[in-house]
Design brief:
The protein is α+β, with helices and mostly antiparallel strands and 133 residues long. 21% of the residues lie in helices and 40% in strands. It has a 5-stranded mixed β-sheet with strand order 1-2-3-5-4. A hairpin with an 8-residue loop joins strand 2 and strand 3. The longest helix has 14 residues.
Length: 133
C-alpha cells in the first residue's frame, strides 16, 4: 500500500523554533505589544511538490522568518538576521518523517514598518525534503 503524502511544514516549524530558541533568540507565535528587544516570528510557510519519484514524495518548503526590534537603528535587527542565517543556511535539520536534502537561504529584505520605532527584516529559506516511509 502506498504511503500518503505528508507536508513537512509543522516539523520544519518545530525544528526552526528549537534551533533559534536554543541559540538564545526570543521566538514568538503571538507577539505581545510589550515585547522588548529583538524578537523573531516564524511566518508564512508554503510547500510544493519537488523531487517526486514513484517510490517517494519530495517537497520544497519555503519558510519566512521575521526579525523585529523596537529600536530606531538597524544594527541589532541586522545582526540578529545575520545570526539566524548562520544558524539555518546549509545546516543539517531533522524533520520527523522526512529526509532533509537541503536547507538554503534564498532572500532577505529590510522592511519599513508603519510604526517608525520598529525595524523589521524578513528572511526566506527553502528546505527540500523527501518523505520517509
Amino acid at each position: 500500500m502506498a504511503v500518503a503524502a505528508r507536508r513537512p511544514a509543522a516539523g520544519i516549524q518545530r525544528a526552526l523554533y528549537q534551533r533559534l530558541t536554543a541559540a538564545g533568540l526570543a521566538v514568538y507565535d503571538h507577539v505581545d505589544e510589550t515585547a522588548e528587544g529583538v524578537y523573531v516570528t516564524i511566518g508564512e510557510i508554503s510547500t510544493e511538490s519537488a523531487r517526486n519519484a514513484h517510490d517517494r514524495f519530495g517537497r520544497d518548503t519555503t519558510v519566512w522568518v521575521h526579525v523585529w526590534d523596537r529600536q530606531r537603528t538597524w544594527d541589532r535587527v541586522n545582526a540578529a538576521a545575520d545570526r539566524i542565517t548562520e544558524l539555518v543556511d546549509h545546516q543539517p535539520m531533522t524533520v520527523p518523517g522526512h529526509h532533509v536534502v537541503s536547507v538554503t537561504f534564498e532572500f532577505g529584505q529590510n522592511l519599513w514598518d508603519e510604526n517608525p520605532e520598529i525595524r523589521h527584516v524578513a528572511l526566506r529559506f527553502r528546505i527540500t525534503t523527501e518523505q520517509e516511509e
